[in-house]
Amino acid sequence: MHPLLLSLSVLWLLPLALTLEEDSPLDCVPRKFILYHGVNAHLFHEDGVFNYSTMLLREDLDLLVLGAREAVYALDLNDISKKRASVKWRVTAKQKSECQNKGKDPELECKNYIRILHTMEDKRMFVCGTNAFDPECDYMSYSDGKLILEDKREDGKGKCPFDPAQRYASIMDDDNLYSATSMNFLGSEPVLMRSSPISIRTEFKSSWLNEPSFVSMAQMPESENNEDGDDDKVYLFFSEKAVECDCYNKLVVSRVARVCKGDLGGQRTLQKKWTSFLKARMDCPVLESQLPYIIQDTYLWCDPQQHWRNCLFYAIFTPQSDTSDLSAVCVFRVSDISRVFAEGKYKTPVPVETSFVKWVMYSGDIPVPRPGACINNEARKAGITQTLDLPDRTLQFVKDRPLMDQVIQPIGEKPLLVRRGATFTRIIVNQMQAADGEKYHVMFIGTEDGTLLKAVNYDGEMFIIEEIKLFQSQDPIKILKFSNVTRQLYAGSDSGAAQIPLASCERSSSCMDCVLARDPYCGWDKRLGKCVALSESQRELIQSVKEGNGSLCSNAGPIKPTNQSIWPGGNVKLSCPKPSNLAKTSWERDNRPLTPSERLQLLEDGLLILNASLSDAGRYRCLSVEHSKTDKYTTTVAEYQLTLGPAGSGKGGHIVFPQARRNGPSVTGLQVVVALLVISLLVLLAWNFYKGHLPLPWKCGKKNKQSQGSCEEEGVNSAAHYQGAQKPALAEDKFLVS
Ligand SMILES: *[C@@H]1O[C@H](CO)[C@@H](O)[C@H](O)[C@H]1NC(C)=O
Ligand SMILES: *[C@@H]1O[C@H](CO)[C@@H](O)[C@H](O)[C@H]1NC(C)=O
Ligand SMILES: *[C@@H]1O[C@H](CO)[C@@H](O)[C@H](O)[C@H]1NC(C)=O
Ligand SMILES: *[C@@H]1O[C@H](CO)[C@@H](O)[C@H](O)[C@H]1NC(C)=O
Ligand SMILES: *[C@@H]1O[C@H](CO)[C@@H](O)[C@H](O)[C@H]1NC(C)=O
Question: Which GO terms describe its molecular function (predicted)?
Answer without folding.
Answer: chemorepellent activity; semaphorin receptor binding
